[in-house]
Amino acid sequence: MDPFKKLVLSSFQESKILEELISPMKTHEFFSDVFQKNVATWSQEPTQLSKLFAYNSFIDVIKKCTKPEQMKFFQAVDENHSQELNHSGIQQIMRNSSGDWDTERCEDFFRGGGSVLFFALEDLDERIQVIRECFKKIFNCDIFVNAFATPRGAQSVHRHYDPYDVFAFQMSGSKTWRFYKPLKGMEMYSTCQPLIDVRENQDLVLEREVRLLPGDVMYFPRGFIHEARTTEQDSDSLHFTLTLVYDTWNGYFSKIVLESLNAIHSCEDFRNFFPHLLSGSNDFKVAEQIVYQKFIDELKSRLISLP
Ligand SMILES: [Fe+2]
């Protein structure tokens, strides 16, 4: 096993949450065979998931959200497409005259093909804070908590891939996920751009279809092209996700190199004339060695733990 995965594994032995969620798979099997490699699913009792996320209805989630930016509303155009709706307009439709969320109006919106995407639910309640803290410890990275409510026969988000690994928890209803082969094999290393759109790519190869039912847990790594929809066979769906927002070695070294380049920008030695036509001569090599060593020293001074 990769020594860094071993390190991560040894740092959370006290946490049983992951172990229970992926049972009967063992945690070490997850880290050696699944993590950053494959899509995997586990079927648990729905009651087990409701210990983590105490919501079976999207209306309960709406009522707990305190900031407008935590929600996005979509309307199904056809079974594969939805369009985002004007935020303030739709909120007015779904609230009553006192300004409170109206259960019946929310249900009407949903039945009419409306879906809701919830973001940054980190502070929704104490249980979510606990599961988030546990996942932070386990995976040693930041964790975003999102949720998705989709009525039967709709797809709210188009085909895409994410720069994050995702755990999905099916709370109620069912949803069908399709995973496609990565485009050039490089997508899983992308770290900075959220939700990369691959709607226009017609040459994608379907690799796997997964139907999640209440109590199901799914993991998929960053870069895996996917789309999730509720087919006519599915029922109104609500699922939560925990996304693992971690840096890569590539990202880490890129940052260090950029910082080093910025630091040497005003340094006399590095602003000097670069006589590349003389490269290969002994004098050039001697001069190059001096500048090279300074650059390496600058890089080394920024590395976290190397001497
Ligand atoms: Fe996604």
What are the salient characteristics of this protein?
307 residues; alpha+beta; Jelly Rolls; 8-stranded antiparallel beta sheet; elongated; binds fe (ii) ion
Distance between the termini: 25 Å
Give the helix proportion (percent range).
25-40%
Quick one: CATH superfamily of the largest domain? Cupin
> Which class best fits the helix and strand makeup?
alpha+beta
- By CATH reckoning, the class of the largest domain would read Mainly Beta
Query: Helical stretch count?
Result: 11
Protein architecture, described:
This protein is α+β, with helices and mostly antiparallel strands and 307 residues long. The chain has two domains: 3-59 and 114-246, Jelly Rolls, CATH 2.60.120; 250-302, no CATH class. The protein contains eleven helices and 13 strands. Strands 1-11-7-13-5-4-2-3 form an eight-stranded antiparallel beta sheet. α9 (249-264) packs across α11. It is elongated, with a radius of gyration of 24 Å. 27% of the residues are buried. The mean pLDDT is 87. The structure holds fe (ii) ion. Residues 160, 162, 226 line the site of fe (ii) ion.
